Amino acid sequence: MRLQNAALGAAGLAAFLALGEAVPRLGLVKEEYFPPTSRIARAFADELSDGAFWTALGDTLTGWALGLAIAVSAGIVIGVVVSVVPYLREATASTIEFLRPIPSVALIPLAVLLYGSELRSALLLVVYASFWQVLIQTLYGVQDVDPVADETARSYGLGTWARIRHVLWPTALPYVMTGVRLAAAVALILAITGELVIGAPGLGARIAVAQNSQAVPEMYALIVVTGLLGLLINVGARTVERRALAWHQSVRGEVTV
Prior knowledge:
globular; mainly alpha; single chain
Protein backbone atom coordinates (compact mmCIF):
# COMPACT_ATOMS: atom_id res chain seq x y z
CA MET A 1 0.00 0.00 0.00
CA ARG A 2 2.80 2.43 0.88
CA LEU A 3 4.63 1.67 -2.39
CA GLN A 4 1.41 2.20 -4.32
CA ASN A 5 0.79 5.54 -2.60
CA ALA A 6 4.38 6.60 -3.26
CA ALA A 7 4.07 5.64 -6.91
CA LEU A 8 0.81 7.56 -7.29
CA GLY A 9 2.36 10.57 -5.58
CA ALA A 10 5.39 10.47 -7.88
CA ALA A 11 3.13 10.14 -10.92
CA GLY A 12 1.05 13.12 -9.80
CA LEU A 13 4.17 15.21 -9.26
CA ALA A 14 5.55 14.25 -12.67
CA ALA A 15 2.26 15.21 -14.31
CA PHE A 16 2.25 18.54 -12.50
CA LEU A 17 5.82 19.32 -13.61
CA ALA A 18 5.00 18.34 -17.18
CA LEU A 19 1.97 20.60 -17.12
CA GLY A 20 4.10 23.45 -15.80
CA GLU A 21 6.48 22.92 -18.72
CA ALA A 22 3.76 22.64 -21.36
CA VAL A 23 1.46 25.51 -20.42
CA PRO A 24 3.91 28.36 -21.13
CA ARG A 25 5.47 26.52 -24.10
CA LEU A 26 2.03 26.30 -25.73
CA GLY A 27 1.43 29.99 -25.21
CA LEU A 28 -1.44 29.54 -22.77
CA VAL A 29 0.34 31.93 -20.39
CA LYS A 30 3.20 34.31 -21.05
CA GLU A 31 6.62 32.92 -20.20
CA GLU A 32 7.66 36.18 -18.59
CA TYR A 33 4.93 35.66 -16.00
CA PHE A 34 5.09 31.89 -15.63
CA PRO A 35 8.33 30.35 -16.97
CA PRO A 36 8.53 26.66 -17.91
CA THR A 37 9.53 24.11 -15.31
CA SER A 38 12.94 23.66 -16.94
CA ARG A 39 13.81 27.35 -16.49
CA ILE A 40 12.66 27.27 -12.88
CA ALA A 41 14.79 24.16 -12.33
CA ARG A 42 17.88 25.93 -13.71
CA ALA A 43 17.20 28.93 -11.49
CA PHE A 44 16.77 26.55 -8.56
CA ALA A 45 20.18 25.01 -9.26
CA ASP A 46 21.74 28.48 -9.47
CA GLU A 47 20.24 29.38 -6.10
CA LEU A 48 21.73 26.27 -4.51
CA SER A 49 25.19 27.35 -5.67
CA ASP A 50 24.79 30.87 -4.28
CA GLY A 51 26.12 31.49 -0.78
CA ALA A 52 23.63 34.33 -0.22
CA PHE A 53 20.79 31.83 -0.66
CA TRP A 54 22.07 29.64 2.16
CA THR A 55 22.46 32.70 4.38
CA ALA A 56 18.84 33.66 3.69
CA LEU A 57 17.72 30.09 4.35
CA GLY A 58 19.58 30.11 7.66
CA ASP A 59 17.92 33.41 8.65
CA THR A 60 14.48 31.99 7.88
CA LEU A 61 15.12 28.78 9.80
CA THR A 62 16.53 30.77 12.73
CA GLY A 63 13.43 32.93 12.96
CA TRP A 64 11.19 29.89 12.55
CA ALA A 65 12.97 27.80 15.19
CA LEU A 66 13.28 30.57 17.77
CA GLY A 67 9.70 31.70 17.32
CA LEU A 68 8.37 28.14 17.49
CA ALA A 69 10.40 27.33 20.60
CA ILE A 70 9.15 30.43 22.41
CA ALA A 71 5.55 29.85 21.34
CA VAL A 72 5.55 26.16 22.33
CA SER A 73 7.14 26.82 25.72
CA ALA A 74 4.82 29.71 26.55
CA GLY A 75 1.74 27.94 25.19
CA ILE A 76 2.29 24.79 27.25
CA VAL A 77 3.20 26.57 30.50
CA ILE A 78 0.41 29.14 30.31
CA GLY A 79 -2.11 26.53 29.17
CA VAL A 80 -1.37 24.23 32.09
CA VAL A 81 -1.33 27.06 34.64
CA VAL A 82 -4.59 28.55 33.36
CA SER A 83 -6.23 25.11 33.47
CA VAL A 84 -5.12 23.96 36.93
CA VAL A 85 -5.45 27.22 38.88
CA PRO A 86 -9.05 27.54 40.13
CA TYR A 87 -11.19 30.17 38.35
CA LEU A 88 -8.27 31.31 36.17
CA ARG A 89 -9.72 29.61 33.09
CA GLU A 90 -12.98 31.55 33.47
CA ALA A 91 -11.14 34.79 34.22
CA THR A 92 -9.02 34.59 31.07
CA ALA A 93 -11.55 33.07 28.65
CA SER A 94 -12.85 36.39 27.30
CA THR A 95 -9.32 37.80 26.91
CA ILE A 96 -8.17 34.72 25.01
CA GLU A 97 -11.20 34.79 22.73
CA PHE A 98 -10.57 38.48 22.03
CA LEU A 99 -6.86 38.18 21.24
CA ARG A 100 -6.85 34.85 19.40
CA PRO A 101 -8.75 35.94 16.24
CA ILE A 102 -6.49 38.96 15.64
CA PRO A 103 -4.53 38.18 12.43
CA SER A 104 -0.80 38.20 12.94
CA VAL A 105 -0.31 40.28 9.80
CA ALA A 106 -2.28 43.05 11.53
CA LEU A 107 0.68 43.35 13.91
CA ILE A 108 3.11 44.18 11.09
CA PRO A 109 2.94 47.96 11.70
CA LEU A 110 3.62 47.38 15.39
CA ALA A 111 6.51 45.03 14.61
CA VAL A 112 8.05 47.58 12.23
CA LEU A 113 7.57 50.36 14.77
CA LEU A 114 9.28 48.34 17.49
CA TYR A 115 12.07 46.58 15.62
CA GLY A 116 12.22 47.97 12.08
CA SER A 117 13.28 45.39 9.51
CA GLU A 118 15.27 43.26 11.95
CA LEU A 119 14.79 39.56 12.56
CA ARG A 120 12.88 40.40 15.73
CA SER A 121 10.04 41.85 13.67
CA ALA A 122 9.37 38.53 11.94
CA LEU A 123 9.95 36.78 15.26
CA LEU A 124 7.12 38.76 16.86
CA LEU A 125 4.70 37.62 14.17
CA VAL A 126 5.84 34.01 14.39
CA VAL A 127 5.48 33.84 18.17
CA TYR A 128 2.06 35.48 18.19
CA ALA A 129 0.59 33.24 15.51
CA SER A 130 2.09 29.99 16.79
CA PHE A 131 1.36 30.62 20.47
CA TRP A 132 -2.40 30.32 20.04
CA GLN A 133 -2.13 26.98 18.25
CA VAL A 134 -0.33 25.45 21.23
CA LEU A 135 -2.28 27.24 23.96
CA ILE A 136 -5.73 26.27 22.70
CA GLN A 137 -4.75 22.64 22.19
CA THR A 138 -3.20 22.53 25.67
CA LEU A 139 -6.39 23.92 27.19
CA TYR A 140 -8.46 21.31 25.37
CA GLY A 141 -6.09 18.55 26.45
CA VAL A 142 -6.18 19.48 30.12
CA GLN A 143 -9.95 19.81 29.94
CA ASP A 144 -10.12 16.22 28.66
CA VAL A 145 -8.50 14.80 31.81
CA ASP A 146 -10.71 12.14 33.41
CA PRO A 147 -11.99 13.63 36.70
CA VAL A 148 -12.20 10.13 38.21
CA ALA A 149 -8.51 9.55 37.49
CA ASP A 150 -7.67 12.93 38.98
CA GLU A 151 -9.69 12.26 42.13
CA THR A 152 -8.10 8.83 42.46
CA ALA A 153 -4.64 10.43 42.27
CA ARG A 154 -5.68 12.90 44.97
CA SER A 155 -6.96 10.09 47.19
CA TYR A 156 -3.57 8.35 46.92
CA GLY A 157 -1.89 11.51 48.15
CA LEU A 158 -0.28 12.68 44.89
CA GLY A 159 0.65 16.35 44.99
CA THR A 160 -0.02 18.93 42.29
CA TRP A 161 3.15 18.29 40.30
CA ALA A 162 2.76 14.52 40.58
CA ARG A 163 -0.81 14.74 39.25
CA ILE A 164 0.35 16.98 36.41
CA ARG A 165 3.08 14.51 35.48
CA HIS A 166 1.17 11.22 35.82
CA VAL A 167 -2.44 12.19 35.07
CA LEU A 168 -2.70 15.54 33.28
CA TRP A 169 0.32 15.38 30.98
CA PRO A 170 -0.33 11.92 29.41
CA THR A 171 -3.89 13.00 28.63
CA ALA A 172 -2.94 16.41 27.28
CA LEU A 173 0.14 15.31 25.30
CA PRO A 174 -1.73 14.20 22.14
CA TYR A 175 -3.44 17.58 22.03
CA VAL A 176 -0.17 19.37 22.69
CA MET A 177 1.59 17.52 19.87
CA THR A 178 -1.23 18.45 17.50
CA GLY A 179 -0.77 22.07 18.52
CA VAL A 180 2.99 21.85 17.99
CA ARG A 181 2.52 20.36 14.51
CA LEU A 182 0.08 23.11 13.55
CA ALA A 183 2.31 25.76 15.10
CA ALA A 184 5.32 24.53 13.11
CA ALA A 185 3.49 25.12 9.83
CA VAL A 186 2.04 28.47 10.95
CA ALA A 187 5.47 29.61 12.15
CA LEU A 188 6.98 29.03 8.71
CA ILE A 189 4.13 30.89 7.00
CA LEU A 190 4.53 33.91 9.25
CA ALA A 191 8.33 33.84 9.03
CA ILE A 192 8.16 34.04 5.23
CA THR A 193 5.35 36.61 5.34
CA GLY A 194 7.25 38.83 7.76
CA GLU A 195 10.37 38.70 5.63
CA LEU A 196 8.39 39.35 2.45
CA VAL A 197 6.43 42.33 3.77
CA ILE A 198 8.77 43.83 6.36
CA GLY A 199 12.04 43.08 4.61
CA ALA A 200 13.53 41.12 7.50
CA PRO A 201 16.46 38.95 6.35
CA GLY A 202 15.46 35.57 4.95
CA LEU A 203 13.89 33.79 2.00
CA GLY A 204 10.88 36.11 1.97
CA ALA A 205 13.08 39.17 1.50
CA ARG A 206 14.97 37.34 -1.25
CA ILE A 207 11.67 36.57 -3.00
CA ALA A 208 10.72 40.26 -2.81
CA VAL A 209 14.07 41.28 -4.32
CA ALA A 210 13.64 38.77 -7.17
CA GLN A 211 10.14 40.06 -7.85
CA ASN A 212 11.19 43.72 -7.89
CA SER A 213 14.13 42.99 -10.18
CA GLN A 214 11.92 41.01 -12.61
CA ALA A 215 13.93 37.83 -12.00
CA VAL A 216 10.82 35.69 -12.43
CA PRO A 217 12.45 32.22 -12.69
CA GLU A 218 14.48 32.94 -9.55
CA MET A 219 11.31 34.10 -7.78
CA TYR A 220 9.51 30.86 -8.61
CA ALA A 221 12.57 28.84 -7.62
CA LEU A 222 12.56 30.49 -4.20
CA ILE A 223 8.84 29.82 -3.88
CA VAL A 224 9.55 26.16 -4.60
CA VAL A 225 12.18 26.22 -1.85
CA THR A 226 9.64 27.51 0.65
CA GLY A 227 7.24 24.76 -0.41
CA LEU A 228 9.89 22.09 0.05
CA LEU A 229 10.79 23.60 3.40
CA GLY A 230 7.17 23.43 4.50
CA LEU A 231 6.98 19.80 3.38
CA LEU A 232 10.10 18.86 5.35
CA ILE A 233 8.84 20.66 8.45
CA ASN A 234 5.49 18.90 8.24
CA VAL A 235 7.12 15.49 7.79
CA GLY A 236 9.51 16.19 10.65
CA ALA A 237 6.68 17.34 12.93
CA ARG A 238 4.65 14.22 12.17
CA THR A 239 7.68 12.02 12.85
CA VAL A 240 8.27 13.69 16.22
CA GLU A 241 4.57 13.36 17.01
CA ARG A 242 4.57 9.62 16.26
CA ARG A 243 7.66 9.05 18.40
CA ALA A 244 6.32 11.09 21.30
CA LEU A 245 2.98 9.27 21.14
CA ALA A 246 4.30 5.79 20.38
CA TRP A 247 2.47 4.56 23.49
CA HIS A 248 -0.83 6.20 22.52
CA GLN A 249 -3.65 4.17 20.99
CA SER A 250 -3.99 6.46 17.99
CA VAL A 251 -0.38 5.88 16.88
CA ARG A 252 -0.36 2.22 17.81
CA GLY A 253 -3.52 1.69 15.79
CA GLU A 254 -2.03 3.61 12.86
CA VAL A 255 1.09 1.44 12.96
CA THR A 256 -1.01 -1.73 13.18
CA VAL A 257 -3.09 -0.72 10.17
